[in-house]
């Protein structure tokens, strides 16, 4: 069965600091992995996706994520946080169907 | 990517009433989905709505409570019936754009409060 664990429901970083949001998954088959961002009072926006091509995936707004099969991880990073990055971030996994399983989310706060 | 709109954006309803949420996509898509996001929680899939067939509901969700229509390839509705305060949530529709990698694009959501 597929599942997603996001370590840290809240993460705070200073503006300009590295952003690291953790996501671990379990899947019985090669997974498809996604990161979504949800700004206050808005829907979810797709940041990036892993689809078994390159293990380092670049997304929008300077974010990237690396698929590590040995660690069953898909952590999201950004070298330098911006105030506009403050939002809720969700990791999601698919085992090759449209049934996406979402993690519980990580709320990112950026401190000026 | 598809542009998705939802109506209403928010509503406050009394218990025992029903609310119908509309989802409109700017392009034709085969698969549409409805999710619930309860306060402070993640997303839970309610059902998958394909045009021309009955919606497929996930465990814990039933058609009598959440009837869904999918009259064409750009539109769907979700009705929340006989509402109780426990139905207070954000309801989001999403679509599979057909890229073959199971990504979904989401609408802005409908924030429902039941009093």
Summarize the structure.
The complex is a heterodimer of chains A (112) and B (115). Chain A has 112 residues and is mainly beta.
DSSP strand tally of chain A: 12
Q: What is the quaternary state of this protein?
A: heterodimer
> How many strand segments of chain B?
11
Strand content bin of chain A: over 45%
Helical residue percent of chain A?
under 10%
Order of helices and strands of chain B: EEEEEEEEEEE
Inertia-based shape of chain A: globular
Radius of gyration of chain A: 13 Å
How many individual helices of chain A? 0
* Beta-strand share of residues of chain B: over 45%
Question: What's the rounded overall pLDDT mean of chain B?
Answer: 93
Distance between the termini of chain A: 41 Å
Largest sheet of chain A: 6 strands, mixed
3D architecture notes:
The complex is a heterodimer of chains A (112) and B (115). Chain A is an all-beta fold and 112 residues long. Helix content of chain A is 0%, strand content 52%. Chain A has strands at 3-5, 10-14, 19-21, 24-26, 32-38, 44-50, 56-58, 64-68, 73-78, 87-94, 101-102, 106-111. In chain A, strand 10 and strand 11 (101-102) form a beta hairpin. The mean pLDDT of chain A is 92. In chain B, a hairpin with an 8-residue loop joins strand 9 and strand 10 (105-106). In chain B, the strands form 2 sheets. In chain B, strands 2, 4, 5, 6, 9, 10 and 11 form a 7-stranded mixed beta sheet that branches. In chain B, strands 1-3-8-7 form a 4-stranded antiparallel beta sheet, with no helix packed on it. Chain B has 115 residues and is mainly beta. Helix content of chain B is 0%, strand content 50%. Chain B is built from no helices and 11 strands. The chains are: A mainly beta (112), B mainly beta (115). Chain A binds chain B through residues 32, 34, 36, 41-46, 49, 51, 90, 94, 96-100, 102-105, and chain B through 1, 4, 6, 31, 33, 41-43, 45, 48, 58, 92, 94, 96, 101-109, 111.
């Amino acid at each position: 069965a597929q599942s997603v664990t996001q370590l840290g429901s809240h993460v705070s970083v200073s503006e300009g600091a590295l952003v690291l949001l953790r996501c671990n998954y379990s899947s019985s088959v090669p997974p498809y992995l996604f990161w979504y961002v949800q700004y206050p009072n808005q829907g979810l926006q797709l940041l990036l996706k892993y689809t078994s091509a390159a293990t380092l995936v670049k997304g929008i707004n300077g974010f990237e994520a690396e698929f590590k099969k040995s660690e069953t991880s898909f952590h999201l990073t950004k070298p330098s946080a911006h105030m506009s990055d403050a939002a809720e971030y969700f990791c999601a996994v698919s085992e090759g169907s449209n049934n996406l399983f979402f993690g519980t989310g990580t709320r990112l706060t950026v401190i000026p | 990517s598809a542009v998705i709109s939802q109506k209403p954006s928010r509503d406050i309803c009394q218990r025992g009433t029903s609310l119908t949420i509309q989802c409109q996509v700017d392009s034709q898509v085969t698969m549409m989905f409805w999710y619930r996001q309860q306060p402070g929680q993640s997303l839970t899939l309610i059902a998958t709505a394909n045009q021309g067939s009955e919606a497929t509901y996930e465990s814990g969700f039933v058609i009598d409570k959440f009837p869904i229509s999918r009259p064409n390839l750009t539109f769907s509705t979700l009705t929340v019936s006989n509402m109780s305060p426990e139905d207070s949530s954000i309801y989001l529709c999403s679509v599979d754009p057909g890229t073959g990698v199971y990504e979904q694009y989401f609408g802005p959501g409908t924030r429902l409060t039941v009093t």
